[in-house]
Request: fold
Amino acid sequence: MSTVLVTGGTGTLGRAVVPRLLDHGHDVRVMSRRVDPQRVAPASAWRADMQTGAGLEAAADGCAVVVHAATASRARQAREIEVTGTSRVAAAAKQCGAHLIYVSIVGVDRHRLPYYRGKYEAERLLADSGADWTVLRATQFHELMDTFLSRRVFIRTRHLRFQPVDIGDVAGRLAELVAGPPQGRAADFGGPEILSIGELAAARHEVTGRHTHLVPVPAFGVLADYDAGRHLTPEHRAGTRTWRQWLTGRQPR
Reply:
């Protein structure tokens, strides 16, 4: 088995990926700016800062694979983390000869949202880095859809739809990619169903009793890209856990 570094290993996706890799027998390193060794055991804790690069080369040294799951939690950090940070991670992976797997989002190459543009720039940077690489694009996680709808008031354009995917399903796919050779651009990974924002809100209300008021708005700017479904991948319904199954198994906010 391999030694695998997971950047953002204490984040939402990282916490799902790490146990999958451990179950497959890998020696896993969890990298974050703040990481408690006791909380990540039996994985090992490695402190590094992608914004400065401090500790990154040491964390990657000796690894066969780097799963780059770290992402920006705030819009103002997007360029530092997605572009500058990915550049540093790619350099560290190249230096130690590791296969770098980058987690991206479906539609980043055809969407005007600044965060998506940052992701796409990071993909192109990775392709030119000289490192061995794989990019996995996924659709929106169930948790993100729940965050949107927990605001009690949300927008709806005429054709607004989403293809929510389970984090566990994506983590399983990442574990498969870790065990295989670099693929470049891997097949997109989408959820099993495409639902309108009205269907998503109605299912959430039915399961949890919590209502979200949907406000009609025109499809302009980045909303036009969402309305056109540029974040969807209907030909790649690879996930298995549906929105309703996720709602039933976990109490949303």
Summary: The chain has one domain: 3-249. DSSP finds ten helices and eleven strands in the chain. The longest strand covers residues 99-105.
